Amino acid sequence: MLLDTASLYFRAYFGVPDSLRSPQGEPVNAVRGLLDFVSRLVQDHGPDHLVACMDADWRPQWRVDLIPTYKTHRVAEAAQDGEEEVPDTLAPQVPVIEQVLDALGIARIGVPGYEADDVIGTLATRATGPVQIVTGDRDLFQLVDDARGVQVIYPVKGVGNAEVINEAFLREKYGVTGAEYADMAALRGDPSDGLPGVKGIGEKTAAQLIREYGDLAGIRAAAADPLSKLTPARRKNILEGAPYLDVAPTVVRVATDVPLPDFDPALPKEPLDPMALEELSARWGLGTSLTRLLETLAAAR
């Protein structure tokens, strides 16, 4: 099981009341919400391995070099160093989340120059058995692969109410397979990531073009072929979108060759550092969220 950790703690932050406070009065809703999520996931899905994947670089320069608008709207207006805009009461909770995961012994991986998506892509590609990716980010639908047992658990309201994304779901909802999803996403674009897409091509049109021409390369070849059945307007838009389409696939597709550090993905039965965990629990008032997770880990098969 691979956790898109930032996606989950953002979801916890906005979904759990900030009336959950430490003994000193600081909000701990993201910390406790994430611990509750992990408890529920382990309980419901029983993974043998669990990895918390982190954004060591939420907006890698190599992606920005290709598409300068990539995630620009998420850069904090006041920040001079390109930091991501994070709510004031969430930012101080992130180091606490990291310390708690480390004390628990849950593997936590972030690699400089890469997003959590890229770490997930690399781990999912290397895996020899079934993989469940837990994320609220549709970009990772590109990794879904029934043949290799790769699924996405996509929280709807919370992780206890989640959709399991497999090839059948993708075909029904989007008309594409996991392998085709990145091409569809590149054509469609994504304003939330600063990706313009190709003018006049939305989700349904992108899926239809992929069905007709196979993939992005086939669609571009059809646009360059005056005998193809593309309408003049669509041909024009695809040809004019060439500079974007030259680079978009590299930006949209997750990396699958990230140099990962050594780590132990085994689900911990007991905390790696019980004393540190006890201190963190007392300092931040982690209460039943932590005790429930410890009980769930101890009972896991």
TrEMBL record:
InterPro entries in the record: 5-3_exonucl_a-hlix_arch_N, 5-3_exonuclease, 5-3_exonuclease_C_sf, DNA_polI_H3TH, FEN, HhH2, PIN-like_dom_sf
Domain 5'-3' exonuclease intervals: 1-269
Keywords: DNA-binding, Exonuclease, Hydrolase, Nuclease
GO molecular function, one term: exonuclease activity
Function: 5'-3' exonuclease acting preferentially on double-stranded DNA.
Name listed for the protein in its UniProt record: 5'-3' exonuclease
Species whose genome carries this gene: Kitasatospora phosalacinea
